[in-house]
UniProtKB/TrEMBL annotation:
Keyword rRNA-binding (UniProt): no
Protein name, entry field: Transcriptional regulator
All copies of domain N-acetyltransferase, residue ranges: 2-172
SUPFAM superfamilies: Acyl-CoA N-acyltransferases (Nat)
GO function term, MF aspect, one: acyltransferase activity, transferring groups other than amino-acyl groups
Keywords in alphabetical order: Acyltransferase, Transferase
Keyword Acyltransferase: yes
Superkingdom of the source species: Bacteria
Length: 172
């Protein structure tokens, strides 16, 4: 049984731990070990996550597979991007599944859930950034209808960036 629940600030520690693991699984080889570890500790800690809940445009959701936490997502409503001319769009800021749960269609369910939530808020589309070398993710988003709209250098450390695609799905 798949269940998606809205997270709140009380879930900050849980989200931080999950984010650390999933980011390492998907990006751990994209920079030096020190750069990755420093980025994870700075970005994915309970206090940083808790602070994000202060923004009313941000929503975190947790996905469970048979009552086991499998992943999470974060969207931000009304978040423009310089590569996209459309107004009233949502940023899919994070969508991560633990490796053990990939290939079970949970990513599709979580993405569809976030798209439906975005549409309910009268948004015109949803965008994200994805590491260009993460072929599995790039192909997943293309299959889901996203198109490459631009480029973005994702800052891992002061000395290291990863090239990312900005991808956009316009709602019909």
């Amino acid at each position: 049984m798949i269940e998606i629940i809205k997270a709140d600030a009380e879930h900050s520690q849980l989200i931080a731990e999950l984010a650390q693991q999933t980011f390492f699984e998907s990006h751990g080889h994209s920079a030096s070990k020190d750069d990755i570890n420093n980025f994870i500790l700075k970005t994915y800690n309970a206090e940083a996550i808790r602070k994000e809940f202060e923004n009313k445009q941000v929503a975190y959701h947790l996905i469970y597979d048979n009552e086991i936490l499998a992943g999470f997502s974060k969207i931000e409503l009304q978040c423009p991007n310089i590569n996209i001319s459309e107004k009233n769009i949502t940023k899919l800021d994070r969508i991560y599944l633990l490796e053990a749960f990939q290939g079970k269609q949970l990513g599709v369910k979580l993405l569809d859930f976030n798209i439906a939530l975005s549409k309910k808020q009268h948004q015109n589309g949803i965008w994200l950034v994805v590491w260009t070398e993460n072929n599995k993710a790039v192909n997943f988003y293309k299959k889901m209808g996203f198109k490459i709209a631009g480029a973005y250098d994702f800052q891992i450390s002061e000395t290291h960036t990863n090239p990312n695609h900005v991808m956009y799905l316009e709602y019909n």
